[in-house]
Task: structure prediction
Amino acid sequence: MSRARRNARRCAVQGLYQWQMTGQDVSLIEQQFVAEHDLSKTDIDYFKDLLHGVPLHLHELDDHMIPLLDRSIEMVDPVERAILRLGVYELEFRLDIPYRVVINEGVELAKTFGAEHGHKYVNSILDGIARKLRAVEVKARQQPQVNP
Result:
């Protein structure tokens, strides 16, 4: 998995957090990020896809999460909410990324930016959503491998 994609996710989570907290237009957040950060080692197109895609599909993403949450979406820590939304977006709209990568990246982001045990919560929610949105992929991974 490329470091450029990992950097794109890190930047997107920060941008999505800012969007959640301020309600600023994501285009302004994108411009600010590009101006203020060294994005030379970042997949800029992927960053933009995540930053714009999550707000565009917000209700759909939240609808996938709500049945698995132990609290209202508004009560989820804002950092973890941004990470979860990003992960659900990838699970639903970026089928080119294996579900295990999406979950692992979400966990790593939560370890970096979230609360002390937030990564466990993120792991649980993304795993549950992957079982629904990527059921065929999850099932294929769980099948015992038969070697001829």
Notes: The two ends are 29 Å apart (CA to CA). The first helix runs from residue 3 to 22. The helical segments are 3-22, 26-36, 44-56, 58-65, 78-93, 99-113, 118-133, 135-142.
